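Title: Prediction job returns without error message
Component: structure pipeline
Severity: low
Priority: P3
Assignee: unassigned

Description:
Job completed but the reporter wants confirmation the result is attached to the right record. Sequence as submitted:
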Amino acid sequence: MSLEEFFEICSSELEISGVELLDGHLPGDDKETIAEVSDLLSEYDLEIACLSVFYNDFAKGTPEERREDVEVVKTWLDHGDQLGAPVLRAFTGFPGLHDREHDDPQVWTDVATCLQECVDYGETVETTLAVENHNHDGLIRTADDIFHIRSLVNGDLGLVLDLANYIDGKQSIDRTLHLADHVHAAYDDLDEDGSEPNYPYYDESLTALSERGYDDFVTLEYEGEDDDFEAVPQAIEYLRGCL
């Protein structure tokens, strides 16, 4: 569907106030197009909850490859600033995709070097750079990994907390709730009450976030097999009840 059709559904039917957009969702990446998207958001009384790069990978094997991805992230920090996005989601890297080892200190150094440049550039804009935990060959798969990469980078490196993407589930969620700049609730399946049966802790984790004072957006990522137009409203109503 077009962005306008998506915004219409979000605003009128789902009655939500914010949307997350991937870079590929936008019809272009020039300033004029970004301005048109911004105007369209205002027309439907929507905010950008999070703008996401899909995808960058700072664990690639060569400096030239990593340099390209640094420039992509920096460019989208500018676009996020123009759109008024509070957060730009980026990845750290996926070493397993490049025959590199998760525990190789050089991998962490490479990723941290790239992130440092992006964080430094982020000081020129209002949008916060935030990395997402990711268990699919990702570098930051547990809370310990989050703490480690943050220790290697100076400045404001945020976290997009994906409730489904830790390899140890709720254990790491509990340890990183306080770091969340944005939250993803991913759905691969749907129960009758709108919950995600594979992640039965969503209600507890979202309640804990709310009790900690988190008052920013939670993005629903629905990737299940049910009809989107039936499943998404159910999931959204369930998530609303958790906050």
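Comment from assignee: result matches the submitted record. Residues 63-83 form the longest helix (21 residues).
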